[in-house]
Amino acid sequence: MRFPLLSGAFLSATCLSVTAWSSVSAELPAELSAFLDQHCLECHDADVTKGGLDLTALKFELNQRANFSQWQRVFERVRDGEMPPKKQTQPEKPELAKFIAGLGQPLLKADTDDIATVGRVRSRKLTRTEYEHTLHDLLGIDIPVKALLPEDRASHGFETVAEGQQLSHHQLARYLDVADLALSEAFKRALEGDVVFERHCTPADLAMFTRGNYRGPDLKEGRSLSWPITLQFFGRMKATEVPEDGWYRITLRDVQAVNPGPTGAVWGTLRSGICYSNAPMLYMIGLVEATSTPRDLVYEAWIQKDHMLELKPNDATLKRAATGANGGNVSFKGRDLAKDGFSGISNRGIDLQRIYPNGDNDLVKRSLFGETDLQKAGKGDQAIKALDRLVARFARRAFRRPVTAEQTAPYQEIGRKVLAEESSLAEGLKASYRAILCSPRFLTFVEAPGELDDHAIASRLSYALWVSMPDAELLKLADQGKLKQPEVLSAQVTRLLADAKSQRFIESFSDQWLRLKEIDFTSPDTRQFPTFDPVVQESMLQETRTYLSELIHQNLDVTHLVDSDFAFLNGRLARHYLGDLPPNKKAELKSPKTKNKDKEKKQAKIAQKDATGVEWDDLMTSPLKVGEGLQKVSLNPQSMRGGLLAQGALLKVTSDGTSTSPVLRGVFVNERILGTHIPPPPPGVPAIEPDIRGATSIRERLEKHRSNESCMSCHTLIDPPGFALESFDPVGGWRTRYGKGKGAEVNPSGATPDGAVFADFEAWKQVYRQRADQLARGFAQQFLTYATGAAMRFSDAAALDTVVTRSRADGHGLRSILQAAVQSPVFLHK
Hints:
Blueprint: H1 18-22, H2 30-39, H3 65-79, H4 93-118, H5 128-139, H6 169-192, E1 198-201, H7 203-206, E2 218-220, E3 223-226, E4 236-237, E5 246-258, E6 265-273, E7 282-291, E8 295-303, E9 308-313, E10 344-347, E11 350-355, H8 361-369, H9 381-399, H10 405-422, H11 425-437, H12 440-443, H13 454-465, H14 472-479, H15 486-498, H16 502-513, H17 534-553, E12 566-569, H18 571-578, H19 583-589, H20 597-607, E13 631-634, H21 648-653, H22 662-674, H23 698-706, H24 709-724, E14 750-751, E15 757-758, H25 761-769, H26 772-788, H27 797-808, H28 814-822, H29 825-828
Antiparallel strand pairs: 1-11, 2-3, 3-10, 4-9, 5-8, 5-10, 5-11, 6-7, 6-9, 12-13, 14-15
Keywords: Signal
Domain DUF1595: 388-447
Domain DUF1588: 641-737
């Protein structure tokens, strides 16, 4: 039984009628009944039922999930001062304290009793991301399999939460298919060796095309050149088509910018795909920052069979070149786009090499066979003994804990049957391993109610911080029974976060917590935001993930979630945040190179300015280094770009591509950053539709909605951060007016639920910079929900208080919060 917060039940006003209450629920303690009679029943009885809540029909049966949830909501609304409404007569402080204690104690007992019986977390399975990483670490392979598995449904914001997970017969069949695919790859590599593939494509090779319309690069003076031509799939190169699925190292030779202008760089993308209209999907490999100085750029990516590379400038602010031909063709005959002043990216060829980033052939062999040589394993009884030994070894690693002979026997029997039929030890092992990979002991977390054993702690810790199975060191400590020792557990948290595998945690956690996985869910309106492009979007993702990684690894304090004096930017993203150069200055920026040094200096000065003529130092205190990609920069104290909430990725995923909503952004900030749960709206309440022309502000359209008393109580929480963020448009740009800058004026002012008034986003940040405890609690809630597979419960409050207190001693550093959270009973108990 779970106890989620009540959806749509709102206490609203003062009340009467103890007799009406008593006739329904005689079990309710008398002091609670008297409080509700005096302050609640007038608006929450059978006749009124404001917010859909009839307290006269609500039984005090706290062992029932629905009843517990409603009483928890009652407790929280009264405790937080939301009910009774401010305009009504308020209870005296002693009376209020008595009610809160009187209701809180039975709620706490009911919740702790339930946890003691069945645990906080129901049976949780591996998410498809965890399953993929586990297969990679278990088998030594590197093939992506996540996309072949059913999507995981998020609950309480996370795919890891057991409450939202499902595992049907259809889904299990998909897991079987993936297990077959992974094992086939592993055994093929172990028995046949790794495939070797290398190809060098000259500029002339890259310009060749054998069928369809030509959309490849320009070829001049031994260089391959790509220009800002917007035709779909322009920049595709048939010569780079790969013969089979695999990881490849891609080296672009002597990459150089053509007409980079004062910014010193031309930004583009390297992607892979079929590159024909029958298969339009393109897969991002990386950003290309071409500079005046030729240099090799190296990328590693998974490329599917028969997919080719597409390389082109993808900066929407560049002057666009015509195709030079009719229909879907591109022609450079009789044209010299460099002399015409267009910016481009050139190279002297591309090298492709098949690689195995997760491990070589020897690692795969050890993963499957240990030190056993299958060729020398023999046949008959000798082969059976080898099979039994290897299956037990594999099961122990796959199940992430010691296994008994009784537990391994069924898997050994499967292998023995195959061995008897086919006389192949390899096939027998593969059959046994397949069954193990579809076992509940592999697919789910084996945890008993109460305190976790050392092996369960090892798994929970590893999946939290590595998104995969425990390594040998964690398992050894678990075998020795040492993981429950605080100093040992703390040292392991430090070790795991210092390892390169912790990047998996950064990506998985941020994808869910900050909803970065939704970055592609909307496409910005190109009429409103013509300069938004794939380079900007990819840079936004890199910015947020790198920023979060910095906060954790440097143990920076939690207030950096709302504000900071540094950011991670590249040249293209910085220009996007300042506003792209105005048309008259863009023309100068894209003009051909000149020998006139005075003109070059003038252009360089122009490049330091945004559309209003403000110099770059309005954003940062020192210039970016051209060619170094994403860089840590010190922000100007007047800049609004400090902290997570001002980053483009978060601003985009909380918008719809055309307009913004303070409600959507307000709910996001409350739940993901401030730790405040926002219940769904009552039934029948319509959404607030923005005026996409910008003639009226969303604030004006919200006023009528907020006048509804049931709506007002929640919007008091929701709207303040949403209003503060209205200064940012749907693609993260700064604005003072709606529409195309000619609509209604943006009003980012408001007041926090406790009455702190703010005039704009900067003032809102100043309020919450002083509330480190609240931010630490909110972050701990999010991490523990993600790491344990269950949302926070009523009885978890004391443990969260301890996490906040312990991390306060280290200045509420994010790594300190993680350390304290891992040491808490919430993490160490089922």
